[in-house]
Design brief:
OB fold (Dihydrolipoamide Acetyltransferase, E2P); 26% strand; 5-stranded antiparallel beta sheet; mainly beta; 0% helix; 5-stranded mixed beta barrel
Length: 310
Amino acid sequence: MLESLYDPRRPERAGAPDFGVPNPGYTGPARVVASEPTCGSAVLILEDERFDEPVSARIANPALGELLVGDTVLATLGEAGEAYVIGLLSHLRKLESEPEPQTLALPDGSKVEIEGKDDSAKVCLYTRTGELVLEWDPGAQRTRVCVPAGDLEFSTERGGIVFDSAEEIRFRGRSIELTSTERVQLGVKDAAGRLVSEFTMKPRRLRLKGDEVGIEAGRAKVNAGEFTCTSERVNIQTKTANLVVGRLKLVADQVIQRANDVYSKVANLSQLEAGRVRTLIESSYWMKAKRSYIRSGEEFKLDAKKIHLG
């Protein structure tokens, strides 16, 4: 067991060392559950009941050396969520039987190492400063490219770039941008290789195709200069609907309306042109007007038990 780099009982070591770490929201012991010495980071479990999820932390003190799974370290967690390892409280000794890596040094100081043995062996490429660039792990069937700092760019001048995977492809990042000068297409194919669902963007055109399209949102807004909907059937179900238009034109073979109450208010003219008009009223018919005119070209009939005039 190594001596702690942080001991509050010794005056010269009282308080956490200052490595330029932001004002922490937590400073205390943590247990190492995974270590990435080549990337200068480790995955920790903070020994505080407020934190039940592992956190990824940068090793702020290079003098700590390589951390092992099971080590207890002094960690600090900033208010913005950044975590750092700033001290070592207890250290597990490496097994003596662990082999030293086979190393091939390159002229510029970079090196290739074969780490582990038998089924756990893997090949790693490091820069001259010790940062991992490429890792090939045949046992885990994984190849990893690590860029500690800077950008990673794939570029072709006259050809294309293809990512082909037998399993899933995942993209994760703070921001993901896809741009094209001609077309962007996302699609899903069936077992026969036919495109059954697609989302296509072209210059000034966007197309969404599928047997079923679902949209769920707390609020949705559509602004369009012209909107066309073609469908065999349209079903709309809502508690309240407000329709405000400058001019409404309705053309239909048949219109059927059902309602408990219907209220219509027309400021000026309300006109009905029909081949025949039939009004069926179960109870009473009441009409009030300042002046009333009823004109019939041929016949006018009134049929009632009693007719009151005047």
